[in-house]
């Protein structure tokens, strides 16, 4: 029912009898004749699967439940599924490679699928469960990202049970593992000790996953042990909570003898929990040491590669240190420039009234508020250039004598252009300081 409601919202004209009759017809003629109808059903199938997080679909359920309109089912749906299979958007569950069969078997199966991909009959296709390839790829990326959030190494090992929980079930996990194994991003591993333990090694980087080693098997056993201990801790916690509530209930009812018995059970459970928690901490500490050792190994390998490259290119350690020092100085200089730019005030929001106020303060400081220079904008620029070019007091005096001083005209110019007044005042200061 939820799927049908989604379809009605997704397809506005779903209830239209004329349009629906055309969509439910069987395909006939050339592909160009029914291509738009095929794309409609293709898009609708993938939209429903994405919305309800359905990685695997059943053809009978899709045909009889999803797209059933008053007892009518799409006659073209079988052909739609077959075309999606031919285009690689659908694979059968039976077509998946079994990661447990070994590396050589996987390679042979992959080669045979590429060279001689079997084309099942329509009846065989409809009887199998189908996996939507676009959603399978998205799910595989989602699983790797989820594992990356809790592991900081280049790869990780999880138990098969944990992998099932992440993928959403055994069937979905089998499809995701098959896809990751086919793309070289994961490997299946198992150990046979007192218990049979299955796990998955997943690459969390862009590089393919490495081969399975004896250390990987030991790590799998440790991870499986931590999960078992955590489950035991959860059981003990529930038992402690139950004993505590029961003891309090009998104590409130006045039955101290029974309450004392449950209090003893609570004490024993707490002692058992402490031992279990201590053991769990030790196992997690061992796993942390292994992860740190792997990280140290990666750093050591990187140092060795760098040393080899320096030797091959005849680069000395002093040259590398000098380059690094120059790089640090350049970065520091750039930071200082950025800091200075950030601290520089912005003048775009300054009002003319603020400039006039500042100009009046400068006039009072200089003490020559009655002296004004009525010159144009171009005259200010040229005069400033001349003042800067003067080197002797005599030339400065000559330049001063050539200036025409007029109080009224300058005030009028300052009121028209506050910025011009500021530049004029700067010119006067330069002249006064020089004289």
From TrEMBL:
Gene3D superfamilies tied to this protein: 6.10.140.1230
Superkingdom classification of source: Eukaryota
Ranges of biased composition (kind: Polar residues): 394-408
Transmembrane segments: none
Pfam family, one: Snf7
UniProt GO cellular component terms: cytoplasmic side of plasma membrane; ESCRT III complex; multivesicular body
Biological process according to GO: late endosome to vacuole transport via multivesicular body sorting pathway; vesicle budding from membrane
Annotated region (Disordered), positions in chain: 389-422
PANTHER family: CHARGED MULTIVESICULAR BODY PROTEIN, SNF7 FAMILY PROTEIN
Protein name: Charged multivesicular body protein 7
Organism: Quercus lobata
């Amino acid at each position: 029912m939820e799927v049908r409601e989604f379809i009605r919202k997704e397809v506005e004209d779903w209830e239209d009898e004329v349009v629906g009759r055309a969509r439910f017809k069987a395909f006939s003629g050339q592909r160009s004749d029914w291509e738009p109808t095929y794309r409609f059903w293709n898009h609708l199938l993938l939209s429903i699967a994405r919305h309800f997080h359905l990685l695997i679909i059943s053809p009978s359920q899709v045909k009889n439940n999803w797209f059933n309109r008053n007892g009518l089912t799409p006659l073209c749906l079988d052909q739609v599924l077959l075309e999606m299979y031919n285009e690689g958007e659908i694979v059968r569950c039976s077509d998946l490679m079994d990661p447990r069969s070994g590396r050589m078997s996987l390679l042979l199966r992959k080669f045979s699928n590429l060279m001689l991909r079997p084309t099942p009959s329509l009846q065989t296709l409809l009887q199998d469960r189908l996996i939507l390839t676009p959603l399978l790829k998205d799910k595989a990326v989602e699983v790797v990202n989820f594992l990356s959030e809790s592991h900081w190494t280049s790869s990780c090992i999880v138990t098969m049970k944990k992998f099932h929980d992440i993928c959403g079930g055994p069937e979905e996990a089998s499809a995701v593992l098959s896809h990751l194994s086919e793309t070289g991003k994961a490997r299946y591993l198992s150990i046979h000790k007192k218990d049979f333990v299955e796990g998955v090694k997943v690459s969390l980087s862009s590089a393919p996953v490495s081969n399975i080693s004896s250390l990987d098997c030991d790590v799998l056993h440790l991870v499986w042990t931590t999960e078992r201990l955590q489950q035991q801790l959860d059981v003990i916690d529930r038992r402690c909570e139950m004993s505590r509530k029961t003891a309090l209930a009998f104590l409130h009812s006045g039955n101290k003898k029974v309450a004392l018995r449950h209090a003893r059970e609570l004490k024993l459970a707490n002692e058992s929990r402490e031992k279990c928690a201590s053991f769990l901490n030790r196992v997690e500490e061992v796993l942390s040491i292994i992860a740190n050792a792997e990280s140290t190994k990666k750093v050591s390998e990187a140092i060795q590669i760098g040393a080899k490259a320096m030797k091959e290119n005849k680069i000395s350690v002093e040259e590398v240190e000098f380059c690094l020092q120059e790089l640090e100085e350049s970065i520091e200089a750039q930071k200082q420039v950025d800091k200075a730019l950030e601290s520089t005030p912005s003048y775009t929001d300054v009002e003319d009234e603020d400039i006039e106020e500042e100009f009046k303060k400068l006039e009072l400081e200089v003490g020559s508020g009655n002296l004004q220079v009525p010159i144009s904008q171009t005259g200010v620029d040229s005069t400033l250039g001349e003042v800067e070019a003067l080197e002797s007091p005599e030339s400065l005096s000559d330049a001063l004598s050539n200036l025409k001083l007029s109080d009224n005209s300058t005030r009028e110019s300052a009121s028209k252009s506050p910025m011009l007044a500021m530049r004029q005042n700067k010119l006067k200061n330069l002249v006064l300081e020089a004289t």
